[in-house]
Specification:
Largest sheet: 4 strands, mixed
Order of helices and strands: HEHEHEEHHH
Oligomer: single chain
CATH architecture: Roll
Helix content: 55-70%
Number of helices: 6
CATH topology: Diaminopimelate Epimerase, Chain A, domain 1
Strand order of the largest sheet: 1-2-3-4
Length: 216
């Protein structure tokens, strides 16, 4: 009986977690700030990016966009034309966003190991592109650990996106409630926090189920 009860509890937990994940995915998919993600960003990271994007638009009057693709089709051995091809690739993305207001566009192409940030001219002295790319994004993507590409891209996108918003907020002396704060440069921290939260929820759900059964 105990084995059957335990198996039943595990199935219930899996159902609850799947339900939460599906709800999160639906909410995250409505974000206008993630232009493309190729299935490379965890739904929970998408939701957090959406929260930051909404607050940045509201408080900072800046639209922050994210575009990540696994393969943009540009061949690695295209020689001198490669830079021109990437420029055209970026320009085509820029055409799809609102550039009349302040904007920042984070672009990542995994197979081409390409990362760039396009932004409004009046933000050029506020956003340190090199710092964000090499301190907040690249270390997570290039980390030599057992995390999957999905985990790395999720953490890297959230980390870079969050730091872009924080940089503008700091310049304007505005506090963002959605800020991910000082964990930015700690490689892997964000992803561990998200996974830890899910595990804690699972334990909590399991505890509730067990307690209900005992009361019954």
């Amino acid at each position: 009986m105990m084995a059957k009860d335990l198996e039943g509890n595990i199935l219930k937990i899996k159902f609850i977690l799947l339900f939460v994940l599906l709800i999160t995915t639906v909410n995250a998919s409505t974000s206008k700030y993630i232009l493309k993600h190729d299935g490379l960003i965890d739904p929970r990271a998408q939701e957090k990016i959406n929260q930051i994007g909404l607050e940045a638009q509201s408080k900072l009057k800046t639209n922050i966009y994210l575009y990540i693709i696994e393969n943009n089709g540009i061949k690695m051995k295209s020689g001198e034309n490669r830079a021109d091809e990437f420029r055209k690739f970026e320009d085509n993305i820029v055409k799809t966003i609102n550039t009349k207001n302040n904007y920042v566009l984070l672009i990542i192409s995994i197979n081409q190991t390409f990362i760039n940030i396009r932004l409004s001219k009046n933000l050029e002295n506020i956003i340190n592109k090199k710092d964000i790319i090499y301190e907040y994004i690249v270390p997570l993507l290039a980390s030599k650990d057992k995390n999957s590409l999905f985990a790395k891209t999720s953490a890297a996108c959230l980390n870079g996106y969050g730091q872009i918003a924080d940089s503008i907020a700091e310049h304007q002396n505005i506090k963002l409630e959605s800020s991910i704060g000082s964990v930015g440069k700690t490689a892997g921290t964000i992803w561990k926090v998200m996974m830890y939260s899910l595990v804690v929820f699972g334990i909590g759900a399991y505890t509730v189920i067990i307690m209900k059964q005992r009361k019954a």
